[in-house]
Amino acid sequence: MGKGGMSQGEKEDGEEVNMAAWLLGVNTLKIQPFELPSLGPYDVLVRMKAVGICGSDVHYLKTLRCADFVVKEPMVIGHECAGVIEKVGSEVKTLVPGDRVALEPGISCWRCDHCKGGRYNLCPEMKFFATPPVHGSLANQVVHPADLCFKLPDNVSLEEGAMCEPLSVGVHACRRANIGPETNVLIMGSGPIGLVTMLAARAFGAPRIVIVDVNDYRLSVAKEIGADNIVKVSTNLQDIAEEVEKIQKAMGTGIDVSFDCAGLNKTMSTALGATRAGGKVCLVGMGHHEMTVPLTPAAAREVDVVGVFRYKNTWPLCLEFLRSGKIDVKPLITHRFGFSQKEVEEAFETSARGGTAIKVMFNL
Predict the structure, then answer these.
(1) Which of 129, 170, 273, 341 could form a disulfide with 105 if both were Cys (CB 3.0 to 4.6 A apart)?
(2) Which residues touch 93 (CB under 8 Å, ≥6 apart)?
(3) Nearest-CA neighbor of 56 among 318, 335, 309, 281?
(4) Confidence of residue 14 (pLDDT cuts 50, 70, 90)
């Protein structure tokens, strides 16, 4: 009980205090009150029910930065989320209280050339959950635009709804690379993004998928959820030529598209070397900010390099893949935690440790 006999999260008038997980410094997360903005006419108030931990969340916790984004003041963390509508703004016609929804975490300006051209993921004014200075969604409640809240089909759980966010990265990557029934796919990296990219590629019709990693456990998961072949590699740059041969042998035919879901010098160099002439390499992961890779020989073989940043217009397709059973993300959710100070700390430690953790999920 708090001061005056009130439990944590309760105001004097009995109204609930919205609590959230705040990133206060390196390795410092604390559950504290989070005051929400007022509900606009096109907004909804959502009670969070499932929030996943992303690699970027762990980066922020460990270093207060991810790529060029730096945390300079306390920030609510989390962006992979789903919940239940509690209130709707006066102009919201598509959702009602009680609806279960998955939230797309980025609010773009809709005025710039990128937004007008349909590539809103490139909007320079993007306000994205838990990308500084914007607060995230690991909270009891959040306010969000109704048009970025997607109703879950009856047979799709709230946890699966939260998984639409990482799955969207894989779906967008497959669209960028034009994956189809004639595209044989190589995936570098068997972490959460490598695995959802594999599931998406299969749903898009890829007939053969080989996945590569340094970790035996993650490769075994990839095999269990549908990889045609797996290849274990080293972290040694000197092994690239030999490993390229091994990967090509494992595919057994030309590699049309490679997805680098790690984004390291070695993984990108391997992908460029393994992909057939005239193929594509899609850079999805952002492990290294700068890389030294053999671009000239790849260019001489007309291997296209395609960049991928987040996603656009992916939630409806992700939800359809989940509804129809074309994609099953449930095996990726390996650890679950509640929303207490102790459990929030434990959950982030579990995710950061790796080991057998793939997707760590909060149930609020």
Answers:
(1) 129
(2) none
(3) 309
(4) low
Q: Which of 194, 204, 183, 175 is nearest to 260 (CA)?
A: 194
Rounded Cα distance between 107 and 128, Å, is: 6
**Alpha-carbon 329 to chain mean position:** 12
- Calculate ∠ Cα 114-110-117, nearest 5°: 30
* Model confidence pLDDT, tens digit, residues 242-298: 999 999 999 999 999 999 999 999 999 999 999 999 999 999 998 888 899 999 999
Residue appearing with tokens 């790529």:
67
Please state, in angstroms and rounded to a whole number, the distance separating the CA atoms of residues 331 and 50: 16
* Tens digit of each residue's pLDDT (9 = 90 or more) over 211-242: 999 999 999 999 999 999 999 999 999 999 99
Instruction: List Cβ neighbours of 89 (8 Å cut-off, separation of 6 or more).
Output: 39, 40, 41, 42, 43, 44, 146
